[in-house]
Structures are given as structure tokens and as C-alpha cells.
Amino acid sequence: MDTALFKKSPSGKLVRATGGYWAFVPGSLPPKLEWDGALVTAMSKADIALGTLSGLGETLPNPHLLIYPFIRREAVLSSRIEGTQSSLSDLLLFEATQVEKRGDVREVQNYVSAMEYGLKRLNELPLSLRFIRELHSVLMEGVRGQHSTPGEFRQSQNWIGSHGAVLNEATYVPPPVPEMQECLNQMEKFLHSETGLPTLVEAALVHYQFEAIHPFLDGNGRIGRLLVTLLLCQRNVLSKPLLYLSAFFEQHRQEYYDLLLKVSSTGAWRDWIEFFLSAVTEQSGDAVSRSRRLQELQHGYMQLAMENRLAPTAVQLVELVLMKPVLNSKTVQEHLKVTPQGARKAIKALVEAGVLTEVTGRKRDKAYAAKEVIKALDGEIAPE
What we know:
Radius of gyration: 23 Å
Strand content: under 5%
Number of helices: 15
Mean pLDDT: 91
Number of strands: 5
Distance between the termini: 44 Å
CATH superfamily of the largest domain: Fido-like domain
CATH topology of the largest domain: Fic-like fold
Number of domains: 2
Strand order of the largest sheet: 3-5-4
Low-confidence stretches: none
Helix content: 55-70%
């Protein structure tokens, strides 16, 4: 690590660890922030965009039509930042058939499980170190990195650098274990305190702080991004879990990494917060656009069902394919509570109507995809 970059940092300090190497220890939150016109404008835009999205979540008759697929899109993109290659179609097909088109799809599935676990756990436990350890345990279960003590904070030093870099070649070395624990305790106090700061700014601060502490041997980036949505839901800034920032971070990956490092090296909090608020603004608008496109598809499919006088089970299936764009007969049977024959008839009706397409090419254990829905979730959406 180039210690010259961090020697004069106002956001933390360098310490020499027992092994003789240098590491960076971030200071406690909150930092002193200077609000200029540009940052106030960015905050206002983010608030308005998030408010629009949150309002949409309140008015939807069945918000799970969006929550289920949006979580999966976030899982794919957050995991992609860490090097996985699986697509949304790969994940949805795996969930429907347990067929792995790519070996890393289980890592993406674990992200889904961790998010769903966290959202449910918020009803019982506030965000805390215990909560974070539980999330990590779910995220790392049975996948690459499972040797890295799932659910436990690290007991050895880690570092960040180019692939294959050793400690003395690291770009960044987070706090040694004793300092790490103190940093985590301070972060937990911040999570539980009344800061007077806007919640979006608190989320930006916590995300940086968690990444700077880097308390796990693996999975830190994904946990840090999970915490953003969970924090916004806990503070009731987001009515439903519909905002996810990984698409923006993945699109601007190098800037994302550079700005996090710049906070540590020069105390560039303002630059990081403005970037974070831009992510909130853009992804809130994107989520609203995708939501409306999905609603348009649902309306069109319902019209199609009426015009073709489809059976009631086929009409019910229209709503299910919006939530689960890749499914099989067993899924339909369970969700619609129909017989195997009833499930097959409903699927056949939507295949004939052009809503579903068989995607496995198999004679048995077939899966069907609503390709227009997947495109609305994963493709380019024109801004409104």
C-alpha cells in the first residue's frame, strides 16, 4: 500500500500492524460535511426520485410483482461487480429447474436469499453487527469463499488489490483485527444514533465505512450493497424494497472504486456522496420506468386473455409470469393451487397466446420463459 496516499487523510489514520505492514483505520462517523449548492441540488433530486418510487410502491395492488424480480436483477448486478458472469436469465432458469448454466449462479442465488432474509429479519432485529453476521452467513453458504468463515468477522488480515496481489502489493489494507473490531463497534453506534443527517447521506456514509473496514474475508462488497436497501427500508424512506444501486455501480465500476478509495486517501466525502446520490436518482427513475413497463405488459396480457377467452387459471398465470418470468409446471401448480393437468393447460394457453416460450428443449422437466418480461427487467429502458 502506498502510505503516502493516506498519511494526511482527514478521514482516518495509518497504523503499523504487528506484522510490520501499514493499514488504514477509518475514523468514526459522521465526518464533517460541507454542503454547497451542487450537493444540495443532488440531494433534492435524489429525494424527489426516491419519493416517486416509494409512492409507486405504496399504490401498487401487488408490489410483490416488482419486488421478486427486482431483487433478482440486483443480485445479478451486485454479484457481477465481484466477477460472476451469470445473467438474470441464468438465475431465473436455475430457480425454475436447478439447472446451472454457469457455475457461479449459486452465488447469485445466495444474494437473493440474503436480501430476502434481511428484509424479513428487519421485523425482528435492527441493523447491527449481529444482523450483518447473519446476512453474511446466508450469502456465503455453500459457495466459493465458504471457507472464509461465513457469518464471522475476520480473524486475520485481508487486503484489496489487483488479482493475485500479495499484501505488500495491495492498493488498500483495511484495519488490523483489533482496530477493525473497534471500527465496527463505532459503526454500530452510528447506525443506532440520531444524527440529524438525511437518511440517504447516512446510507452513503455507512456503505463507505463498511467497505473501508472490510470485516469479512470475502463478500464485503455484496454485503455493503445489501445494507443500502436494508437501511432505507428500516428507516421507512423506502416503502417497499424497490431501489437497488448495483446497476449504477456496475456501469461506473472504476469510478465507484476510485471514489471509495479517495475518501480514505483525501477525505473526499462530498464527491462520494454526490456520486451516491446520483446513483439513487438514476436508479429510482429506472425502477419507475421498469415498473411501468411491467404494468403495461400485464395490462396487455390481460387484454389478450380476454380476447382469447382464456380459462381463469390461464388469467391467474398472467400475474404469476410477471413475478416469476421463468417457471415450470410444478411452480404453476403450487402457486395457483391447481392439479398437474390444470397447470399444464394454463401454460399451454399462454404458450399459444405468445406470452410464454419453452426454453429447455427437453421432453420432461420443461421450463417456460416470458421473454418480454425478462427484457423489461434486464434490457435497456428509455428514461421518462
